[in-house]
Amino acid sequence: MSMKRALAVTLLLAALAASAIAGMAQSGSGYDLSWWTVDAGGGSRDSGGGYTLASTAGQPDAAEAGGGGYTLSGGFLAGVDTPPVDQPISGLAASSSGPTSLGQPTIFTATVSSGSGISYQWAFGDSSSGSGDAPSHTYAAAGQYIATVSGINAANQLTATTVVIVQQPISGLTAGNNGPTQLGQPTSFTASAASGSGVTYEWAFGDGGIASGAAPSHIYAAPGQYPVTVTANNLVSSQSAGTTAVVRQEWAVYLPVIIR
Length: 260
Hints:
Helix content: under 10%
CATH superfamily of the largest domain: Immunoglobulins
Order of helices and strands: HEEEEEEEEEEEEEEEEEEEEEE
Oligomer: single chain
CATH class of the largest domain: Mainly Beta
Radius of gyration: 44 Å
CATH architecture of the largest domain: Sandwich
Distance between the termini: 169 Å
Low-confidence stretches: 16-49, 51-60, 70-79
CATH topology of the largest domain: Immunoglobulin-like
Mean pLDDT: 80
Number of helices: 1
Strand content: 35-45%
């Protein structure tokens, strides 16, 4: 190969590298090469100026090419794996399995309408945290908590909240009253539970009358004995207890006065 020929090949290879990077056609000195495809699959074949070139820039399967006293193996640019592009998150929502009994786990769920490559970070509202689209958490005290989830990917970040109610189950319910009472006077009732949170009380007085609260009163229309039931409820439990109300009617006895 003459000195001029070797110089031409050297210039040609430099032009090919610049062409692969810029994606533009290069021509001159008896050749015309157009590298319009970079890392897109397949290959192109061009010849001229005493050489033959068959290859594709950036392809791992680029063929060996030769001609004009040189050989080119592979592509001009190393193939680079492009990471997938995350789709933006939309419609993030949070929910839970509550209300929950104290000491039992609450199961959380995060859902989205769309999005990819999402990670989920949770703040459970009691200074505890978690991760994933379906974590669980056990609260140490009864109460109402606001749990927050963040959905995160490379495109955007959204947050959503859910309210969790944790209650202590009811136990040890008792009922009582202040009877016996005189007909026409109110009978007072009381209910208490050994444990339980968020408790409500519903009463049935045994004569068709009803009331609510821990300490109601009721006036009976007739003397007698009445079976009374109180039911205690909260969001995680229910318990009932009974008491008997006694209503009496007292009769006045008048003795005649005898005057002599």
